[in-house]
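Exercise: predict the fold of this chain.
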Amino acid sequence: MGSGEATASSVFNNLMLGYIILLFNKLDLFPHFFSGATFDQLQAADGLDPVRLRSVLGAATSSGLIREKYSVYHLTNLGLELHRNRGFFTWAIGGYSPLLESMDTFLRSPDTAWQPYVRGNYVAVGADECNQGLMQAIFDQVIDTIPATRIADLGCGNAGRLADLLSRRPELTGVGVDIDPGAIELARQNSVAHGLEQRLQLVQENVFASLTGPRPEFDDVELVMSFMMLHDLFNLSGLQGRLFDLMKKAFPKAKYYVLADTCLREPPPAATAPPIFTLGFELIHGLRGIQLFPLSYYEEQFSRAGLHLVARHDFGVPGTHLFVLEVPA
């Protein structure tokens, strides 16, 4: 076995490390390690049990996540990289552990509803962490070139992207839309934390299922953005060939769409280790019975809907693209 190949020991240890990363996210411990923290400082930060904390720090040190020098803990280079990528662990372990633990259920009973096996709040938080660590700078550069004063985020999750944007640009107002009540509750908390209650409206709704006409919250929206949802929407039989027509109906004054999604790898994957996120993304969607699509499919759908592809940017996450589309008048 070559030195670069995985072993049973490394696979198991990395599994434990994944849970530690999720714990550091949940307790917001990562920031303490940037400038260095003693055991007492870490313990006092959240009133943590000292015996159990020592066990966790020992495992994190053994895994190479942190190092201890002169009784002060810091992130290693690996720890810094994992912090930038922490959202993937929140998304996969926090959001999809029940589904992954129940793979046998879906293999034996493929008609089983997958929604009860997903923790929507963790999926939303993980998406926001990926945004902060990998996507935010790219998004800011792109969104600042598009003329709009009111922006909607379709599938807003915890509204982290909207909250950051509105905080940075006080001339904007926004509306966040999500079907998941857990995500909307997190979005409300985020709105209050940023002092945006008067500028950020939140709507819990499946726009495409319940739309009978433009909602007043949507009427003046000039730009619609949506992140990591297109593959789900492309799979809905009721939306095939109608998705963008319904989007235009829901947001009648929108001039631009800014859409991001992760595409299916093409050509077919070789026998090499996939980049971070890709394996989990493809496996989880396979278990949910959701087909993924290559980049060429997205471009074909935009063209068929009469949308003008202004620009396409690589968007931080492997296989993920940010599309800027102009809506015809």
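Check your answer against the key: Residues 120-143 form the longest helix (24 residues).
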